[in-house]
Please model this.
Amino acid sequence: MIFDSMFWIVGGWIIRICMIPVIGMRKDDPTTCLAWVAVIFLSPWLGLVLYLLVGEHGLSRPRVFRRLKEHRNFHLVNSEYLECPSYQGCQVNRDYQVLVSLAEAHGGLPLLGSNKVGLIADTDDFISSLMTDIKEARNHVHLLFYIFRNDDTGRQVAGALVEAAQKGVQCRVLADAVGSRGMFSELGSWMSRKGVEVYPALPANPLRLRLSRLDIRNHRKLAVIDGQIGYTGSQNIVESEFGHKKAGQWHDVMVRIKGPTVRQLQTVFVEDWYYETDEVLDFPDLYPNARKEGKATIQVVPTGPDQPTEGFQDILIQSIQSARRKISITSPYFIPNEGLITALRLATARGVDVDIIVPDRSDHLLVDQATAYYCGVALKNGCNVYLFNQGMLHTKIMTVDDDMAIVGSANFDIRSFYLNMELVLILFEPEFIYNLSMLQNCYKGHSSLVRADAWFKRPLPKRVTEGVVKIFSPLL
Model:
């Protein structure tokens, strides 16, 4: 008994001492280092297990090298599809030229014009539009979603896919292995038997050790129909009442696109499909000729731990630095890092109005505590904070000066900055951005504006809890 106790005590201190240099060498961000050191010192054995499972910064090295190599190869092979000379050379406000160059350097995808975009801010409307396009498909349907749930909505979409497959349309579904884990055994198997190809993205089996950390997920939401219609945004294939009951109805945004940019969305799917299936999609109708459909100029930016830089974070900071009058941020989770906080502080210092709209209650209790802390930081730095009280605000958008917008799957938190594979759009189209701004005003109309004096007078236990959770926010 004494020997067992000594083993656990001495072993715990060995773990504490040895893990400090390990964490220091493997983590670039001092804040993240301190968070992991705190976990290890509080509970060394549990902390060691957690670090082995989720502590590494990104994908396993073999998988990273493979993705980086194949990413370059895809861009070499598909350069004629990615670049549409007739639709490049789009003129944007000079304030955003650095942003566009930065985004292209990160994602490798050029800015393309002549797109038609439609804003869909209702789950049922999105599902209805998607199913109509699936039913009218003639060649192929490609879906990539973090959550594809076996509920009424998921079964409706699955039925439309099966119906299309039985007419000879090639239907492929790629869904995150964790986000969609309840779908594969029943609904996924049924679709497979009916001719729809269904695969999990980033399988999370610790015995296979394919990932350095199990919580890296493919968080993208993407649909491409016949290479001519594309969708992306924050909506999953799931009912609007999905999630924690206390969070209420979910509110999301999707963008429906027709035009040259759909070819780039197709390439994102083709790459992710190859990485999970080893199948190179290559058939004549994959990239139909680009056509002028509208006036929207769009840049597609895929981000993730397989990329050589922290792209989404850099894009956000550059966007904030470009602002002259107003910034409106809508996100379900708000856990910024020091760089983003500094950018917001400098924006308000030069007279820019900054609105941050987050749900009063999300689907993650701990994340809510961290978000509340950083809402206080935002208030101290001169930002306006709105707490949405009509359900789970899952929309992820930022509008700048009514000139530019960022829409996609990425949250304003550490996971989207460093871990998850995300997909965002940078859009330049006055009417679309006006509609986004009106939507954000609608969100604010169903929110409570936070008064700084009242916020910092909330009960002490609540503020203490938020401060404690904040210490571990780099790990959330």
